[in-house]
Amino acid sequence: MGLWFTSGSYMLARYLAMQGTMDWLMIDGEHSPIDLSTMSQLASVISDASQGKCTPFIRVASGTVDQIKQVLDAGAQGVLVPMVNTAQEVRDIVSFSRYPPEGVRGNGGLMPHLGFAATRGEYTQKANREVAVAIQVETQASVDNIEEIVAVPGLDMVFIGPNDLHISYGYAPSFWSDAPGFRTAVGKVLSTCKRVGMPCGILMGNAAQAKARVEEGFTFVGIGGDTGYLMSGVGAAYGHITGTADPAGGWGAYVRQDIQ
């Protein structure tokens, strides 16, 4: 169980990691305005404050070698690449994420091996086993190619990106719905991952949605986002004190759904 981390706050990352309730935090380098220096601070504080029990993942903006290499050298223990469509893209992503002979990364930076209290040589020998490589299925093409994608050696995990997957099938963006095209696509990805033993993850909007996905067989589930819960809690408190009804889709309703 994890959390989608978008705020970029060093102290909030520390609080969440120290609480001991999250197995991982997904630092959003795709949509949030978080630079590489901030990512490196977030990754290291998550690992240190949790004593290695909370894994820092970083979602990059694209699967290019420079982005993947930089976030892994910043201390991420996992990289998530969005908008992947083909098995060849996955082979490239794995190659960019691994040291030789399995990949093309090169010796790497200071942050990762210091975080593991190891020499650079020791870290490099073990890093291919310790760093998780994940891709995000968000398009019709990726669903159509899911059999070939999960067969790529070195891929550790598949995530479903529900908002963009809805859009790809012509629906309004949503974390979850009963839209037939969307549900058929999700079913195909989930069943394929189960058959080959590939962990399948998804980032949900709140805990109620996340619980339902766990019951459906997803193995790596995000319960929402740090800023979403923060704003929702403030909105719910304001509404309770003032007697103000939640606006349509308001933050207060977001938190009350989880509480109920």
Low-confidence stretches: none
Fraction of residues in helix: 40-55%
- What value does the Rg take, in angstroms? 19 Å
Write out the CATH superfamily name: Phosphoenolpyruvate-binding domains
Q: What order do the SSEs take from the amino end to the carboxyl end, as H and E?
A: EHEHEHEHHHEHHEHHEHEHH
Give the overall average pLDDT: 89
Number of E-type strands: 8
Portion in beta strands = 5-15%
Largest β-sheet summary: 8 strands, parallel, barrel
Number of domains: 1
Q: What is the rounded distance between the termini?
A: 20 Å
Number of helices: 13
Structural shape? globular
Order of strands across the biggest sheet? 1-2-3-4-5-6-7-8
Q: Using the coordinates above, name the CATH class.
A: Alpha Beta
Assign the structural class, choosing from mainly alpha, mainly beta, alpha/beta, alpha+beta, or little secondary structure. alpha/beta
